[in-house]
Amino acid sequence: MAAEMKFAKSHEWIRPEENGLATVGISSYAVEALTDLVFMQLPPVGKKVKAGESIGEIESVKAVSDLYAPVSGEIVEVNAALPNQLETLGTDPYGAGWIVRIKPDDPSEMDSLLDRAAYEAQIAS
Amino acid sequence: MTSTPLRTPLAAWHESHGGRMVDFAGWWMPVQYTSIVDEHLATRQAAGLFDVSHMGRLSIDGPAAGSWLESILTRSIADLTAGRFRYTLITSDEGPTGVTVLDDAVVAREADAPDGSARYAMVVNASNRERVVAWLRSKCPADGVTLVDRTFATGMIAVQGPLAVAAVCVLCGDDDAARVAGLGVYRGTRAFVAGQPAAVSRTGYTGEDGLEVVVAADAVTDVWQAIHDAGSPRGLKPCGLGARDTLRLEAGMPLYGHELVATSDPFALGLGLAVTLTDGSGTPRSFPGSDALARMQATPSGRVRVGLVFDSKRAAREGSPVVVQGRTVGTVTSGSLGPTLGCAVAMTLIDRDHAAVGTAVDVLVRDTPQAARVVPLPFYRRPAPRS
Fold first, then answer.
1. B30 at A interface, C-beta within 8 A
2. Same domain, yes or no, for B188 and B313?
3. A62/B242 Cβ within 8 A
4. How many domains does chain A have?
5. B71, B70, B76, B60: which is closest to B118 by C-alpha?
């Protein structure tokens, strides 16, 4: 069974993979709230990040938003094709619209993030 | 703004049609309904429908209205005939330079009053309305001029784009439709639109052909809905303030608080046309700040307003430094993706030495240099109408 996807309050999702890595993207709610995406900056592969630290930015016509690391770890892969096809974030935010893969320092750090129900409750409030 | 934002007569319509509402200059306004880019392109290709009821609308009547306005506005209106509109600045003689720009405005001469005296209307920025009205009242003579803030008694709709005039004219009787369709740029007339008495003008803030329609507050929603229904089958879309901003940016139009600020030199901004320093016989005109403006014209400022086009879609924002060989030579005043152009654009105030068309510059966008080059304004000019 696929491991459970967790969410950060800042609208990133993270999903543990079988190889010990974790995939990170942004929620469909975040994509819809941003709209008119024009630019995305990805972090360099190999960058060590702390949970809550900016790992890039995403820009819409109206504003620039930071992307935050949901957990601490090392960036081991980035979706280099994504900045040139930002529409993928809208059509497949949890699949082809993934943004980075992180090797978490401590996989248990994911336990403290929101599950889907708690995240949806946050959006609704 | 800490107080509850003001609502235009259309606020409920915006809320029930997916408008993303924000507090803009103290008004509860839609930024967008669907997408800024979609709304922008609909305006360029078909028509956009904008609620601009938040703009301040003033009427200036009375036997001395014309002579008083002539004494207070930077631009002469002495030769303004009924049905004509004119862009002007409103200035005071305060501040270190001797002139403070309070606002930019459009003044119109309406049909004369029954007693033969001229009547005027003025539209000012929402963000400046209270301050400008208070200042105008402080300068207004006790007799001979009646200044009324009609912002809350009326609403204002902008219909902009190649199909805009047709979308309004189908809602008018034959005579009114012919008169509206025949309006020249910066001309206005009275007409019944969807059965409601309206002031209709060939004006706007998008770089497109189009109209602005002022009606009584309680008629705005009916007129809006009628224009919406008339234009929607041909691609008209309701548009929020987001598209209004990207459209005016592409059209190279200044926005108070960004390009134009209290301390601005209008000549550096390319707004010299809004300042009439001498009358027809060459005699200096006198209005608040006129001496300082004459000095500014005689001593050109070191910086001028130009456009920048970027290689990328990544937009510079207001305040981004413009750099040449490590030296800051300018500052971005407005920047965004230009949806019609497909790349980022910005208006900037830049040192004259670096203002020549084609000059290569870097703009620091969140500390990352982005390559851009100087271009003439506007970025976008609408295609000539097919004749």
1. no
2. no
3. yes
4. 1
5. B60
Residue A125 banded pLDDT, cuts 50, 70, 90: confident
B337, A38: Cβ pair inside 8 Å? yes
Q: Dig out the tokens for B287 from the structure.
A: 């209005």
- Answer whether B35 touches A (CB < 8 Å): yes
Quick one: B119 and B187 in the same domain? no
Residue A52 domain-assigned?
Answer: yes
Its domain, for residue B143, covers 57-149
**Which H or E element spans position A66?**
strand A64-68
Instruction: Spell out which residues of chain A touch residue B317, defining contact as CB-CB under 8 Å.
Output: 64
Q: What CATH number should be reported for the domain holding residue B309?
A: 2.40.30.110
Same-domain status, B29 and B42:
yes
Tell me whether residues B37 and A62 touch, CB distance under 8 A. no
For residue A111, the distance in angstroms to the closest alpha carbon of chain B comes to: 33
Domain, as residue range, for A47? 6-106
Give a yes or no: residue A44 inside a domain.
yes
Alpha-carbon B261 to chain mean position: 14
The verdict on B90 and B142 lying in the same domain is: yes
Task: Compute the count of residue pairs across chains A and B with CB atoms less than 8 Å apart.
Answer: 35
Domain assignment present for residue A16? The answer is yes
Rounded CA gap, B338 and B361, in Å? 18
Q: How confident is the model at residue A1 (pLDDT cuts 50, 70, 90)?
A: very low
B344: chain A residues, CB-CB within 8 Å: 38
Kindly state whether B36 is in contact with chain A, defined as any CB-CB distance less than 8 angstroms. Answer: yes
pLDDT band at A17 (very low <50, low <70, confident <90, very high): very high
Q: Is B337 on the interface with A (CB under 8 A)?
A: yes
What is the rounded distance in angstroms from the CA atom of residue A4 to the CA atom of residue B235? 44
Does one domain contain both B47 and B181? yes
Both tokens of B153, joined, read 């008694």
**Cβ-defined contact of B242 to A39 (cutoff 8 Å):** no
B285: in domain: no
State the total domains in chain B.
3
pLDDT digits (tens, 9 = 90+) for B235-285: 999 999 999 999 999 999 999 999 999 999 999 999 999 999 999 899 999
Nearest to B242 among A59, A61, A64 (CB): A61
What is the identity of the amino acid at B190?
Answer: R
CATH label of the domain that carries residue A74: 2.40.50.100
Distance (Å, rounded) from C-alpha A50 to C-alpha A55?
9
* ipTM surpassing 0.90: no
Closest Cα in chain B to A57: B366
- pTM of the predicted protein model: 0.94
Give 3-state DSSP helix, strand, coil % of chain B, rounded to 5.
25, 35, 40
Looking up residue B175, the CATH number of its domain turns out to be: 3.30.1360.120
The answer to whether the beta carbons of residues A113 and A70 sit under 8 Å apart is yes
